[in-house]
Amino acid sequence: MSSELRYTANTQLEHLHARYTGTGHADLTKYEWLTHQHRDTLASIVGHPTLNSYLAIAENESIGRIKFEMTERMLQPCGPPPPKDED
Amino acid sequence: MSEETPRLVDSFTAPKEVLQEFAELAEEEDVDPFAETASKRQIAARQSDYHNKRFNRVANESGDAFKDGDDSGYKEAMRLQMLEKEEQRVKRLIEDKEKQDKEEGKENMDLDRTPPRAEIQAAAQELAAAAGSRRKRRWDVGDEDEKMEDIKTDSKEWSDQALESSAPKKRRSRWDATPADVSAGPGETPKRSRWDQTPAAQPDAPPIPIIMNAPGIMSEDKHNRYLTDEELDAILPSQGYSIVTPPPGYAPLVAPRSLTATPISTSLGGFEIKESSDAAAVAAAAGLAPELPTEIPGVGNLAFFKPEDAQYFAKILKEEDETELSVDEMKERKIMRLLLKIKNGTPPVRKTALRQITDKAREFGAGPLFDKILPLLMERTLEDQERHLLVKVIDRVLYKLDDLVRPYVHKILVVIEPLLIDEDYYARVEGREIISNLSKAAGLAHMISTMRPDIDHADEYVRNTTARAFSVVASALGIPSLLPFLKAVCRSKKSWQARHTGIRIVQQIAIMMGCAVLPHLRNLVDCVAHGLQDEQQKVRTMTALALAALAEAAAPYGIESFDNVLKPLWLGIRLHRGKGLAAFLKAIGFIIPLMDPEYASYYTKEVTVILIREFQTSDEEMKKIVLKVVKQCAATEGVTPHYIKQDILPDFFKAFWVRRMALDRRNYKQVVETTVELAQKAGVSEIVGRVVNDLKDEAEPYRKMVMETITKVIASLGASDIDERLEVRLVDGIIYSFQEQTTEDQVMLDGFGTVVNALGIRVKPYLTQIVSTILWRLNNKSAKVRQQAADLTTRLAIVIKQCGEDQLLSKLGLVLFEQLGEEYPDTLGSIIAAEGAIANVVGMTQMNPPVKDLLPRMTPILRNRHEKVQEASINLIGRIADRGAEMVPAREWMRICFELLDLLKAHKKAIRRAAVNSFGYIAKSLGPQDVLQVLLTNLRVQERQSRVCSTVAIAIVAETCGPFTCIPAILNEYRTAELNVRTGCLKALSFVFEYVGPQSAYYVDSVVTMLEDALTDRDLVHRQTASTIVKHLALGVAGLGCEDSMLHLMNLVWPNCFETSPHVIGAVMDAIESMRVTLGPGVLLSYVMQGLFHPARKVREVYWRIYNSLYLGAADALVPFYPDVGELSEGQNVYDRYALQVFI
Lengths: 87, 1144
What we know:
The complex is a heterodimer of chains A (87) and B (1144).
Chain A: H1 3-19, H2 30-47, H3 49-59, H4 63-73
Chain B: H1 16-27, H2 35-41, H3 43-46, H4 72-103, H5 117-131, H6 142-154, H7 159-165, H8 179-184, H9 214-218, H10 229-235, H11 279-285, E1 295-296, E2 300-301, H12 307-312, H13 314-317, H14 327-344, H15 347-359, H16 361-364, H17 366-377, H18 384-401, H19 409-420, H20 425-442, H21 444-455, H22 460-477, H23 479-490, H24 496-513, H25 521-529, H26 537-554, H27 563-575, H28 578-591, H29 597-614, H30 620-635, H31 641-656, H32 665-682, H33 684-691, H34 700-717, H35 724-740, H36 746-759, H37 764-778, H38 783-802, H39 806-818, H40 825-842, H41 851-861, H42 867-884, H43 890-903, H44 909-926, H45 928-938, H46 944-961, H47 963-974, H48 979-996, H49 1004-1015, H50 1020-1037, H51 1043-1053, H52 1062-1079, H53 1081-1089, H54 1097-1118
Antiparallel strand pairs in B: 1-2
InterPro entries (chain B): ARM-like, ARM-type_fold, HEAT_type_2, PP2A/SF3B1-like_HEAT, SF3b_su1, SF3b_su1-like
Organism (chain B): Heliocybe sulcata
Main location (chain B): nucleus
């Protein structure tokens, strides 16, 4: 593989990365990154039945309710986006 | 050489004729030897007359149907098209009349004599009358025109013309209309054909029409330009002639010297005048300037520049004062420069120019752009590459211009449509792409109104290309949107051409869209169905072809959509003959496979009568179609074997299994294919029994055809159906035809091999005879025959062994062994392969000649450079090393090892792989030390390929003999000061760890120090290869408890993440990713977190890249490792992950 080809292969890979939600870039803000982290956390809880039942026991709720709440919370898990700077 | 000089012995010279020849050669020196190939590259030069009809097309501006106040487009186009038809009709009438006159003996067209004036005028007037107001004269000098009109009206001959001139607006000949009138009359059309071009381009004049028949004007060169006065003086005798002074009042339109353009076809009778006055450019255009510029002001260096380019780009070839130019002129020059860069520039130049022209497309506007691009595409000397680039420009520009292209749709179509019937696949694809983009940009309504006039164009070429273009439009905008229009066109009452084209559009849609027609199948079939009963033969034929295409596209679904056409089709085959019948049969052939079995059987029986009748046909096309239909019918489920045997086979064999069929390649293939298909139903013995006697036919091509059929039938169906008597005849025939062949053919060889292998043990009684044939042919004088005999041995070896004829095998083995001195490499390769095949089946211990004799004989052959020999010998040696290494002394193996090193340089990958594998086998039997030493020493050689292969071989030795045998040696070798050796050692280690996988856990600690050294080396490649080792190591030891040393290596790899060289960064990233597997994503996250919000963007970019690949690899596993950043919360944004803080 010529160096150029390899290079383009890499850039293509980066295009691919950009298509996945949750991947970041050099200009990502704190808010955006943390929002992704929160969503991943919530998704992870919904996806692991053991975590789900753990939380259900701790909060004294039904498993379905926990699932529902976690899913609901994925919408703006860290609150609305902060106002952009003027500059 | 004069007579009196004494002749010295040592001063002889070449014979006179030779010197003469050289002198002549020197004179001819400026003959370009590449001229011929250059013309081959030109598209126009290699295309057929039919393709080149594109140069005759005339494009008109298509009015924008969506623009207010300009509704003339469609109406006008239709009117023009009617006129053109009328003109053709009249021309044909005139031609017919002339022909008739000639036949009657009234020889009017005497070439020596000018035809009577009256006659020409009559014809001209008839033409002019037909052409009507569309034609405008091209001489646009107003006052002259009036003068001429005066003359005409005065003279009595022009009396009828004079009558017309009293009502000039209604009917005017193209000779007497001034362009001024054109722009003046509001009722007049804004359309301009090539007839009414203004020779001088005033900047404020309306846009110059694009000349679609450009070659007439553009293709002049030094061979057909006008003669100059000097040249005429030189040609004509000076005595007896006098130069006539021009009549008073004659003013030449232009000085003859500045004439650049001369139409080829003198029938047009007029001049095209270039606006340029620049002498250099004009000279270049006329082919007078031998030096063509490759450096052009404002453009820079070009890859090439053709004489033809000069006339298109004349304006930018000279230096100009840019301040004097108007904005439009500047724009034009800018476009020309960009186009020239794109067409003739080097790749980087071309790339930037293409981007610029795309970005500025809307700024330039559609008009100026296409006025420049389209004539270039119609240039006769255009080459593939140039066409590709120009088409690309159109494509890019189209995107940007969007609906601005509307006025140019027809012009673009005229240029692009020919691509759809180009013989080059990629040209066709490009054409489709453009038309599809065009239709998306212009919209369906506009496309239809633009192309509608061409649907019943008088010229078949135009209709053909238009149909194809329409099918592209259909695929771009969806079939449903085009259906109403198609329905209307297919039912057109006005002309059969329209119906023909409409049906052809459906056919093209089916061909292009394939199974995507299924949802609309019924509609499409209904569209064309009535065409089967059309009164025009051509329409009926085309309908049948369209149905065939639809059925082929829909297969195996959609039979219910064809319900309506079944009856007319099956009735039609009884009514038609010739071409029509062929088309109907073709449609039937494609529809039958869609049917349910019982229907298929019924309809097949209906059609068989006709098919059998047409077996006798002498028409080649019909023959092909009949064969195809028979094949399709035979393949359907409902047709019973009994029926085929009873009704089809007798006539089929009588008509097609004749010697004549073997002579034409296409017939040959068709017959073989059809017969094989019939055999699927009728059985092997039925077919083979019929043809087997022809294996002894006296015509060789026919024997070949028989052999190929038998081969294919037996290969697909086996030989169990063949009874004893047939078996005898078959084997006898095969041996006969094999012996009698005059040209050694793959077909005979394959046939022999297939039949014998299929018969298996049943062939035993004939083996003695077969082997003696082979033995005899192995000693033949011709190398080809010997080669073929050896190849046959290769194929038969297994069967001979199955039959238990070891005697014969050892005899063959011995004879082949004696033949190893063969001098023809192809034959030698076959002989070695045959020897290898025998060794394979008998085994190394029973092999005769014994392996210990065979191998030393092979050692010198390994030096043979021929690929086939190399491959065959390496395979044989590898096999011996694998199975019978202990039978050969170690010294011999070492010798072979050294020879094998050379094979590592082979071009063919299979040879290198076989060689590398052989090292493994040899090392296994000899012990690794010696082989390893050979390979490590080989790391010092120059050729990279040889070194790389050695490293692979080392790794294979390590794999077969255990890593502990090799790793110490490699580490020791790594201490050598030579760079190549060290890199080779690293490479070898990387392969070793790749191959041994989890076993590497035992060796991690021993290589860590070496890796420390390599990863901290100055040399980039060192670090790269070391990273690769780390990658394989990390993946190998994942989960095996080597985290401590891995973390250590990770610390050494990590700083390399800032490398920029693509190979290095690739290897480093890979190593880091595999660390994720070994160390877990949490560890990596803590590394990455240090730089994600680094103040330097360069750092952030790299770290985010690593983070992304980490995230994609283990998003879920990262959740527990994200830092707790609750203290960063501010205002509405709370960053605590409360769900993780819960505990019971």
